[in-house]
Write the structure tokens for this entry.
Amino acid sequence: MTSDFTLVFLSFFSLTLLVRLWLKWRHIAFIAAHRAAVPAEFAGRIALPAHQKAADYTIDRCRSAVWGILIEAALLLALTLGGGLTLLHGVWSPHLAGLPYGVAMIVSVLAISGLIDLPLSLYRQFVIETRHGFNRMTLGLFFTDLTKQTLLGLAIGVPVILAVLWLMGAMGQYWWLYVWLFWSAFNLLIMFVYPTWIAPLFNKFSPLEDGDMKSRIEALLIRCGFRSSGLFVMDGSKRSSHGNAYFTGFGDNKRIVFFDTLLSRLEGPEIEAVLAHELGHFRRKHVLKHMALSFAGSLVFLWLLGQLIEAPWFYAGLGVAAQSTALALILFFLVMPVFTFPFSPLSSYLSRRHEFEADAYAAEHAEAADLVQALVKLYQDNASTLTPDPLHSLFHDSHPPATQRIAHLQQLGKPA
């Protein structure tokens, strides 16, 4: 007999799936409709062939994303109402109990998901990225990375899963608060150790060489009151020709990292402007705000799981007859994206607002025109579409559309 919660889940599942597919199809159609002409704001800055390359690249990525959405949806139904979790429970429960059973269940679900996603990941890397001239990764490097990620995930993930499951079973009705404290501390630890211990497993990080560029950047850091543990160049070119720069680390272990592809493309003032933007995120406390929202959200979700973990209708409504902490954890994190997708525009709005604020900070400590020029080069080099569908952007884009961002910076650059 179909339960009320099954109907609620299927309703949200169907609506979310249809909206996600509709947004992708809208995005593809909108970009295709604007492929023939460069937007007026970029006329003279970006050539028509580069604009069309960005359109074709984005459309290809969207089409693969449609397949990703469909595969993800099919897997979710297969694991829940299709009986997949029940089957896995039947495989492990006769042989394992308690924490070993929980770890086996969670690792099995993650492994199945990873294996199903693997063909599409290979297609994106070696077909789409290669077709548009971005891929520099070999098949050997791809599987070397995958092996490292898997081993690292097991080395870190299994102890974390054990700790979470133990807290869920040992800390009584307020277990969710203890799990939240542990999870928050773990995330802070990962942020601290990532630059020194994890990132170098995948890339080479070299100190930025002495010279005009380093002197310019160090002067900017002093003006902005930012202390870091070093300036580094990452060999991003061994995997892709895309360029980027980012902050990593936490507390006294912060690093500033430039892709070698970025340094080879931008001029000194442009790099300074890009870094000033990134420093804007730090000075406007965007990282701390994001962390606070993330931690608050995880607390709410864990509290909600605490209310559901003993509810038979929660398991039965999702096609699982057995009950356990591991099954509750798996089911909750499988189905929550279905119910939280409608809130995506709020998350995107907050992120885009932070980008505007960081641009404003950059205009105060560098030249707005230099940041505009840097962004134009990055849009072109990364084949970022200049004409995203507004509704798709509302749900999915963490950065403002190119035309809005450039217009905002040009306004900031005008004399008062």
User: Anything to note?
Assistant: The CA atoms of residues 3 and 317 lie 6 Å apart. The mean pLDDT is 92. The longest helix spans residues 98-131. The radius of gyration is 24 Å.
